[in-house]
Amino acid sequence: MKNFKKLGLLVIGLLATEGSSQSMLTVADAIKIAIESNYDVRIAKNDTEIAAVENSLLNSGYLPSVSASGNISYSDETQNVVFSDGSLTEVDDAVTESYNASVTTEYTIFDGLERKFNVRKNAENLNYTKLQERQLIENTVVSIYETYYNVAYQAQVVQNLALIMTNSKDRLERSKKKLKYGQATKLDQLNAQVDLNNDSISYASAYKDFKNAKRNLNLLLGREVTVPFEIDTIVTFSALLNQGEVLSSANENNISALLNRKNVLLSELDIKINKAKYLPKINGSASYNWNESQNPITSFALENETYGINLGLGLTWNLFDGGATKTRIKTSKITKANRQIELYKAGEELKTEVYNAYEDYQNKQFAIKAEANNVLTNQLNFNRTKKQFGLGQIAAVEYRQAQINLFNALNNAAKAKYDLKIAEINLLQLAGKLVD
């Protein structure tokens, strides 16, 4: 029993010391930190950078290729030469030296428009990757709101339990005084002690959940999980959202809708890229060559040097590739058809999600008002019950029930507040207005 008393006294001071030297972390601060430091967001930004590199001029195929080469050779031989008149000559140390160098550039003049459509596809891939990055940021922001307000809710549960414990401790002290003066029984004191012990256990458990929730938020922010901070339990709501406006905005700006439309466009480009393989390709080349050789006396020319420009133009036309191109075109068209079906399906799913989310949003608006009224009612009931209990007009069990009812009402009101904010955030995400 003494251990429970010590636990009660210990946990009552925990929340007071929790935020004494910690900085306030607002939800806006949390979002800003997450966008800069969250691990998944950083990976998504790197993926966007990769897509930007692939969309650059250096990867377009419109630049020529330039290469340089050079060679030196040396030979020292003994040669026996028989001339046409029958004479024989033997030459020792017949040295031959040769040198050559060249610079060559090659350029694809026409490739059946394949290059053009590949450039467009790279650009659309970059846009698609940016949309994916935005989607991940949106999901992260929603997770930040959910996790942040879970911390705020746990903080309020701890505060409410601290209030309950204060009342339970006051009840225990009253029962001790009444017992001393013969106005209560030992059973009344024991019951009060048991209720205080239970409240202390609940407080310790709630405080553990509060600390765990804070660590989870730090992890989501991409920072050291033990970084201390205070939480802001005040919630600011946006102006009342209109269902029609949300649905109209969702059709235009919802990230899933944008991604599905982009998928259809990418399928169209795949078809065009494959069709381009039916057309011929024209390649041009130009080179500057220099050659020089030093030959032995047995050679026709003792020295030889050539240099100059060479130009070339070539055409290739794959008249039949075994049906590979035709097969790719057919599969690309089927893929496009599937993506168009997915686009229509996603549109219907989005409409359903908006209607469901708005229904939830309205329900949460009703709940927050009802829970606020419930708090007022239970607060009045508890105040009167406490007064009557002090006067000995009601039993401890009635006082305890009023105490529990007030605790539940306070928790429900806090939860309703945060639930409404999350419902609002979900609607803003569906409307494509969550992240600018």
What do you see in this structure?
- The two termini are 57 Å apart.
- The strands form 2 sheets. Strands 2-3-5-6 form a 4-stranded antiparallel beta sheet, with no helix packed on it.
- It has 10 helices and 6 strands; from the N terminus they run ααβααββααβααββαα.
- The N terminus is likely disordered.
- A hairpin with a 5-residue loop joins strand 2 and strand 3.
The largest sheet, given as strand count, sense and whether it forms a barrel, is:
4 strands, antiparallel
Please state the structural category.
Answer: alpha+beta
Shape label? elongated
Query: What proportion of the residues form beta strands (DSSP E)?
Result: 15-25%
The portion of residues assigned to helices is: 55-70%
| Sheet with the most strands: spatial strand order | 2-3-5-6
Distance between the termini: 57 Å
Strand tally, please? 6
Radius of gyration based on Cα positions: 41 Å
- Continuous helix count: 10
SSE sequence, one letter per element: HHEHHEEHHEHHEEHH
Mean pLDDT: 90
Low-confidence stretches: 1-12
Give a quick precis of the structure.
With 436 residues, this protein is of the alpha+beta class. Helix content is 64%, strand content 17%.
